[in-house]
Automatic annotation (TrEMBL):
Signal sequence coordinates: none
Protein name: beta-glucosidase
Keyword annotations: Glycosidase, Hydrolase
Source organism phylogeny: Eukaryota, Fungi, Dikarya, Ascomycota, Pezizomycotina
Top-level EC class as recorded in UniProt: hydrolase
GO molecular function terms listed in the Swiss-Prot or TrEMBL record: cellobiose glucosidase activity
Amino acid sequence: MSLPKDFLWGFATASYQIEGSADVDGRGPSIWDTFCAIPGKIADGSSGAVACDSYKRTKEDIDLLKSLGAKAYRFSISWSRIIPIGGRNDPINQKGIDHYVKFVDDLLEAGITPFITLFHWDLPDGLDKRYGGLLNREEFPLDFENYARVMFKAIPKCKHWITFNEPWCSSILGYNTGYFAPGHTSDRSRSAVGDSAREPWIAGHNILVAHGRAVKAYREDFKPTQGGEIGITLNGDATLPWDPEDPADVEACDRKIEFAISWFADPIYFGTYPESMRKQLGDRLPTFTDEEVALVKGSNDFYGMNHYTANYIKHKTGTPPDDDFLGNLETLFYNKNGDCIGPETQSFWLRPHAQGFRDLLNWLSKRYGHPKIYVTENGTSLKGENDMPLEKIVEDDFRVKYFNDYVNAMAKASEEDGVDVRGYLAWSLMDNFEWAEGYETRFGVTYVDYEHDQKRHPKKSAKSLAKLFDGLIKKE
Ligand code: GBH
């Protein structure tokens, strides 16, 4: 089994999860700063104000990447460091730009290929306050395009751009369940605002158009001279029928992926929302104007895939409630026979099931005409890790096995099934601010000691990836 010669592998992070330095060098607040300040939103009451202190430790982080043999690094830019208020007529903060320009120079000098995510959920709070952020169909795409242009111009050396990370999360968790910033939900026990039946679909639509605008700008004004590529990163779990004999469960498996992934990928590859979504959501799902279709259709140079877990799917009967976002089905970790999909982790939503990765790679490849795929995130937390002594934490055999199984499943998809997968970024380079879960859930291949000056301790899994890929990537 093998992977192509120029296959890129490395690690991924995101600005708000690692940088800290929330008030340094002119950064403005993002919706996550605001959200974290609301009591009860973050499990341990924490925030990203300090996090891994990576804003000040770029050299240390690059040395770490080098020592682990990484060929690539995916990180995100904090929009509110670049344009602190956020909008296209607001002041630009040169210090913020300089920081990322230097970081990319240093990465390249270390022989590491940067993958830059422009938006990993940390919207400038000023835009949420000014016009409702992602919900504003006129303003948001224009402001995002402007911000993207500033970055394309500033960092011509970056050849791999990702517009949005997991728009499903920004839309559903931000505007339906209220689990993520800005915390809108119809559930009045969780928040004072929101319309869970409509807002997520509006936010998702506006993200797609913003993505389309940024891609058009890149292709017309930067790509011809810079020669890079641009795409979006989508999250989605693998699905298996709860009862393989029941055609309704089998059908619900596809519907689950359509509501998670095809919601964004169908417009990007075909110019329309999936039929299953239109059928259930009716006109609560926005309709693309001709101008929007022209922006969105065909707007991926590559497909960015974030993948972690799998679920058994059981269809539901009857009319789903207005705020249903799954597609009228249930997700389960056990099937009809009582088989369990995989072992528990520290994350309630994550259970390893590597075969699902191979299956989903095939599903995507088939539906979207064999696109070039980068796996932009894959990784796991580990049950009880936070409460273990350091000597045990660094012996993370569970995570070593997870990577081993998942990367081998990917190699099979590549070699045996012909899926065009070109890169793999493990989540994550180090433990970090795990959003609503705070710091207790750890996804790093490196332990970060938050009590002792954020000291980094590589775990066994950190070193395991170089060995794994060295054995798989063709030498010529
Ligand atoms: C990624 O999302 C993120 O990109 C990354 O920032 C994060 O640190 C990493 O995962 C680990 O969590 O509320 O029941 O719907 C992964 C995909 C999708 C996983 C939403 C959590 C929430 C479960 N995420 N899901 S639920």
